[in-house]
Specification:
Layout (H helix, E strand, L loop, with lengths): L1 E2 L2 E2 L11 E7 L2 E10 L3 E5 L9 E7 L7 E11 L11 E7 L3 H13 L13
Antiparallel strand pairs: 1-2, 3-4, 3-6, 4-5, 5-8, 6-7, 7-8
C-alpha cells in the first residue's frame, strides 16, 4: 500500500504507534519509545539508557491516551554502546516495581495490541 508515496509492508498501517517513554534517573531525564512490553517490564529503545540496576521514574504515553501512565522501574538490561540492530537494540530493559493491580491490568491489556511486533525482546525485561 502506498502512503505518502512510500511503499509500506502489508499491515504496517494497522500496527499501533510506539509508546513514548520519558524516564528520570537521579537528576537526568531521558526519552525513548517502546513497542515491546507487558505488565512485568518493557524494552525502552533510546540513545542514552540508564545504567544497570538504576531505579527510574517513568511516564508512558500511549497513542490515544490523554494522560501518561506513571510507573517506577529498575534497569535489568542495558546496551549503551555498540551497533543498534535487531539483535542488540540500543536501549534498556526495565522491570516495573510495585505496580498496583489496576496499572498492571492496563499494561497487560495494552500489550496485547502490541503483540503484532512480536515477543522476541521479552528476554530483556522478564
Amino acid at each position: 500500500m502506498l502512503a505518502n508515496g512510500i511503499l509500506q509492508d502489508k499491515g504496517e498501517e494497522d500496527r499501533p504507534k510506539p509508546c513514548h517513554v520519558t524516564f528520570v534517573h537521579e537528576s537526568r531525564k531521558g526519552l525513548g519509545r517502546s513497542c515491546h512490553f507487558n505488565e512485568i517490564g518493557m524494552l525502552v529503545l533510546c540513545a542514552d539508557p540508564a545504567p544497570l540496576q538504576a531505579r527510574l521514574r517513568m511516564s508512558l504515553l500511549f497513542p490515544g491516551l490523554k494522560n501518561p501512565i506513571d510507573v517506577e522501574a529498575e534497569v535489568v538490561w542495558t546496551n549503551p554502546y555498540g551497533a543498534e540492530d535487531a539483535v542488540t537494540p540500543r536501549g534498556m530493559g526495565v522491570k516495573f516495581v510495585e505496580l498496583d493491580a489496576a496499572t498492571a491490568r492496563l499494561l497487560a491489556d495494552f500489550s496485547q495490541r502490541y503483540r503484532v511486533y512480536g515477543t522476541q525482546y521479552e528476554i530483556f525485561y522478564t
